[in-house]
Write a structure and sequence with these properties.
188 residues; alpha+beta; Alpha-Beta Plaits; 5-stranded antiparallel beta sheet; 4-stranded antiparallel beta sheet; 37% helix
């Protein structure tokens, strides 16, 4: 669980799939009308209050946004409104999902690219890297592509959102295509 304040009125809580499992809820089950969802929200806000030393409480006017991540977790945005001016000044912060897929050889890479192009109307931004024998696709997306994850699980040899692995790839692997890699590979 990662908790941060992005402004004086906004707290962002990133939850992994493991965090959601420990809380006893999934992204798909989240519904504020559900008592279990409310319990989780109160628990998360209590943890944010302890961590940040602030008092975020859902009894006032609060915008709660939940965005799924590509690996089964989610990101929750809590924005407390103190006045109507706060609502007008609110600029939503959208954090992209960045993740890496590895392929041992080119067959799975090309097959995955073709499957993505045939099943997803607008594939996310993608870059292709190689170390000579293996390939890595770096994805950046502003929405959770459940279908994309499913295709990649079938064809790739692993997925990660590790910032360290992403940075290592950018620094030490050769960039073969720095824009629209999926679109270019899918027509090979």
């Amino acid at each position: 669980m990662k908790i941060e304040a992005t402004s004086k009125n906004t707290v962002v809580i990133s939850l992994s799939s493991h965090d959601l499992e420990e809380l006893g809820i999934t992204y798909d089950d989240m519904d504020y009308k559900n008592l279990e969802t409310r319990r989780v929200i109160y628990t998360l806000l209590e943890e944010a209050n302890k961590t940040l030393g602030k008092d975020f409480h859902p009894s006032g006017k609060m915008l709660i946004e939940a965005i799924p991540d590509p690996f089964g977790g989610c990101v929750l945005y809590f924005t407390v409104y103190q006045s109507d001016a706060d609502k007008e000044a609110l600029i939503p912060v959208v954090t992209p999902f960045v993740f890496l897929c590895e392929f041992k050889g080119e067959n799975g890479l090309i097959d995955a690219s073709r499957a993505i192009l045939s099943e997803i109307l607008k594939p996310p931004e993608s870059k292709l890297y190689s170390n000579g024998t293996d390939y890595r696709l770096l994805f950046k997306s502003f929405s959770n592509h459940g279908k994309l994850k499913s295709i990649l699980r079938e064809y790739s040899d692993g997925m990660t959102e590790s910032n360290t692995k992403i940075a290592h790839t950018k620094e030490h692997w050769n960039c073969l295509c720095d824009k629209n890699a999926i679109e270019k590979l899918g027509v090979v």
